[in-house]
Amino acid sequence: MSNNLPKVAWIGLGIMGSPMSENLIKAGYAVTGYTLEQDKIDRLVAAGGSGASSIADAVKDADVVITMVPASPQVEAIAYGPEGILENAKRGALLVDMSSITPQTSVDLAKNAAEKGIRVLDAPVSGGEAGAIEAVLSIMVGGEQADFDTAKPLLEALGKTIVLCGPHGSGQTVKAANQLIVAVNIQACAEAVVFLEKSGVDLAAALDVLNGGLAGSTVLTRKKDNFLKRDFAPGFRIDLHHKDMGIVTDAARNVGAALPVGGVVAQLVASLRAQGDGGLDHSALLRSVERLSGSQV
Hints:
Helices cover about 55% and strands about 15% of the residues. It has about 300 residues and is α/β, with parallel strands linked by helices. Keywords: NAD, Oxidoreductase.
């Protein structure tokens, strides 16, 4: 292990955080992790990382602190308070929050961290579980150029497309747009699947040829098997996409942008949650179209 690489603390070892932190270890970084479930910490240790007993313990010696938790309340819970990151990380540390949260939460975090001499980037990602495992995530970043330059080698161990999008909160704004496009895209694919099946067409053949033309997309490539097999094991849960549709519809209202189709899809995502499908993959938007089309799901 080369000693000139920054020491990393990783908070949040879920579906995304576990494989991402392991990719950093493979790239030669010393990673100390903390998360709520002990078995996830054990997994990190088995991969060559170190476990911590608390957030304070994880971050105290870190040059870079990376956080990957579900939503704004969790980011605030781990950042603030006597046991939180801001009170326990060293001055000059760089906090890279890779969670998907409201742009305003990121702006506030950067401001509060600056008072402690801690630099912040918001760096949410797209690419889902597969992208995390394969280290091909798209990473959209908000913050200062100098901090981005510092973080870039580390982010290159996690993703393929890494772009500074503007000041603090900009990464989250671009991520919100990403989630809008993905949800609408999945919904369109789901409607096509039900239409094709009810028409008696060979679905696998149809999706192959569609994906080779203008209707093709990364969403269809990644989710084709979910549609064909009705396999909705979560790569990205409906619960989280519901949270993200709330972020994008709220942020769009604040800036005066109309999202007519996004608003409809946001309601379809909300409806899936109300039907008890919140723990399924977002490709389960197919179930909503099936219900609307009279199928027993």
